[in-house]
Amino acid sequence: MDNRVYIFDTTLRDGEQVPGCQLNTIEKVEVAKVLEQLGVDVIEAGFPISSPGDFKSVVEISKAVTWPIICALTRAVEKDIDVAAESLKYAKRGRIHTGIGTSPYHIQYKLNSNPEEILARAVAAVKYAKKYVEDVEFYAEDAGRSDNVYLARVIEAVIKAGATVVNIPDTTGYCLPSDYGAKIRFLMENVSNIDKAIISTHCHNDLGMATANSIAGVMNGARQIEVTINGIGERAGNTALEEVVMIMRSHKELDLHTNINAKNIYKTSRLVSSLMNMPVQANKAIVGRNAFSHSSGIHQDGVLKNRENYEIIDPVEVGISESSIVLTARSGRAALKHRLDLLGITLEKEKLDEVYEEFLLLADKKKDIKEDDLLVLVGERGGLGERRIKLDFLQVVTGKNLVPMATVRLDIAGEKFSATESGNGPVDAAITAVKSIIHRKVTLQEFLIQAINKGSDDIGKVHMQVEYDENIYNGFGANTDIITASVEAFIDAINKIGNAEKAAAK
Ligand code: KIV
Ligand code: ZN
Q1: Where would you tag: which of 43, 73, 233, 388 has the fewest CB atoms within 10 A of its CB?
Q2: What letter does residue 289 receive in the DSSP assignment?
Q3: Which atom from ligand 1 is nearest to the alpha carbon of 226?
């Protein structure tokens, strides 16, 4: 049997269903690109019929991502499948994920139906999806509490109808690892055409067993695991990508392999946590703040003698830098470079100098520079291209019963230009001042401010989307001062317009 295990990431679908974790399309595309770099095989980008936002995200992610399969979720309903197929039209490799509940609870109380009708609906949905895409995944919702004999019949029938992947969700997180493993083994042994499809695990963490169940699944023949970054998801969450991947890497005797570039795990974890406003618990396996920190004297002594005395994973393997190197305003370029290297980020000398200058400014305002802060500093710079326009000076006057005023000075290719404008708020005044200098008719489409680490000295991170000449440009800014971050995000977008025009003129 092939020992390659496919990683199906559903952070942007099952993970994003958590109240308060919703992302806008720009952020979803940003996460999808990071997931691609991480090496996931499938990105479940959304449930397109559920909202225009989800539909748009699947479209934009399909355009932005090259290598992973893009998957769209549906119910076993023709209209859902039509909409999912439409949303996948730009995907280089698209998959429709359709399904229906197969447990007695779902059949009787949720669907008010009977087992034979459910089987027929499952088959019909797969056949219908097959009209659009070759790659169709079927989920048997609440498979964890479904009768194995009936489940095997449904699975055999949907594979016959063309399903390429069969998902066996433990929707309620109820199964014991031994039972879930036995369920997968039962399907391997009792579904006559199982060699024509891949079995997928999809485990929820209500009893803290999602990871154990997923591993039991692959030990018994499943070859795809459905996961989210940091294990986020409804209620107690889903299986955490970082956990199953590192279990398979650590336990060589399992002889199971994935395509995940483990060095990107930590960076991806922090990006998802900050965008989704979902802190990672300090003792979370693999990515928690304390996962590799040793506080007791005995442990510290043991680790100093030999790291392997108390560590089964080298933190560098998952992209976590050694905590012994603390970054402060007194740190030099070498320390910054070292920490960035450990995060898997390599900058050319000129860019490093630029980031270093901003790092010093931030370190002056914020005592403890965390890796999240570094990622923002670098993310802001990453792939920027040329920054012809720079913010040189900004002053705002605002307050209760005052008309907000902003004075902005821009450095445009070495020349300085100033303007003072009023607005209905300080950001509006500052952006109006920038616009009056650059003389471009740009319209602000989206504007999002977020804190990263939550302290009052925290960095505010701003995403802006502007429209110019019927094209959309995204800008990012980060600063402890959110007005400065907003103006920087706007200027970043304007620079991208300039860079795009330059590229088009070549
Ligand atoms: O938990 C579950 O059953 C699901 C399905 C929709 C795949 O998320
Ligand atoms: Zn789920």
Answers
A1: 388
A2: T
A3: 7
Torsion region of 21: left, alpha or beta (phi above 0 gives left; psi -120 to 50 gives alpha): alpha
- SS3 assignment, position 313: coil
CA-CA distance, 22 to 16, in Å (whole number)? Answer: 6
Q: Give yes or no for a contact between 233 and 17, defined as CB atoms under 8 angstroms apart.
A: yes
Q: How many CA atoms lie within 13 A of 235 on its CB side?
A: 13
Beta partners for 42?
8, 69
Reduced to 3 states (helix: H, G, I; strand: E, B; else coil), residue 319 is coil
pLDDT of residue 301: 60
Residues of the chain with pLDDT below 70 are 293-305, 307, 310, 321-326, 342-344, 367-368, 379-386, 451-458, 503, 506
Strand-by-strand arrangement of the 389-397 sheet = 389-397, 405-412, 415-422
Kindly give the pairing relationship between strand 443-451 and strand 165-170: unpaired
Identify residues whose C-beta is under 5 A from ligand 2, the ion.
Answer: 14
pLDDT in tens, 342-396: 666 788 888 889 889 888 888 887 766 777 778 778 864 444 356 789 999 999 9
The predicted pLDDT at position 298 comes to 60
Upper half-sphere CA count for residue 467 (Cβ side, 13 Å): 5
Instruction: Compute the distance from residue 14 Cα to the ligand 2 centre, in Å.
Output: 6
Ordered DSSP codes for 329-398: TT--HHHHHHHHHHTT----HHHHHHHHHHHHHHHHH-SS--HHHHHHHHHHHTT-----EEEEEEEEE-
The answer, yes or no, to whether any atom of ligand 1 lies below 6 A from the CB of 202, is yes
Tell which residue, 49, 39, 40, has the closest CA to residue 72.
49
pLDDT value at residue 373: 78
In terms of phi and psi (left: phi > 0; alpha: psi -120 to 50; beta: otherwise), the region of 79 is alpha
pLDDT of residue 365: 76
User: Which domains are seen in the chain, by residue range?
Assistant: 6-275 (3.20.20.70), 293-380 (no CATH), 389-505 (3.30.160.270)
Taking the C-alpha atoms of residue 246 and residue 241, their distance in angstroms, rounded to an integer, is 8
